Amino acid sequence: MKERHAGKDFSHIMTIEEVARYLSLHELTVRRLAREGEIPAFKIGRQWRVKKDLLDRWIERETMRNIGEGDSA
């Protein structure tokens, strides 16, 4: 179910567990990446959350950056 508040869509806020499954990574790896600021994550209390659209944009940027690095080798 999609929740809407003031025109914003909040239906795609993911937990660390969901992000780990989505990226095929261990949950501890995702927590470390979040803590180090490597992935776009934020905390609510003691729990990490990730907006899926920001994560998808991060994946695209990282993919393009890695492709660009591969061209210079």
Any chance you could write out the topology, listing elements then pairs?
Blueprint: E1 4-5, E2 8-9, E3 13-15, H1 16-23, H2 27-35, E4 42-44, E5 47-51, H3 52-71
Helix pairs in contact: 1-2
Explained architecture:
There is one protein chain. By secondary structure, the chain is of the alpha+beta class. It has one domain (4-71): Arc Repressor Mutant, subunit A. Helices cover 51% and strands 21% of the residues. It has a 3-stranded antiparallel beta sheet. Strands 1-2 form a two-stranded antiparallel ribbon. Helix 1 crosses helix 2 (27-35). The longest helix is centred in the last third of the chain and has 20 residues, at 52-71. It is globular and about 40 Å long. The termini are far apart. The model has no long low-confidence stretch (mean pLDDT 88).
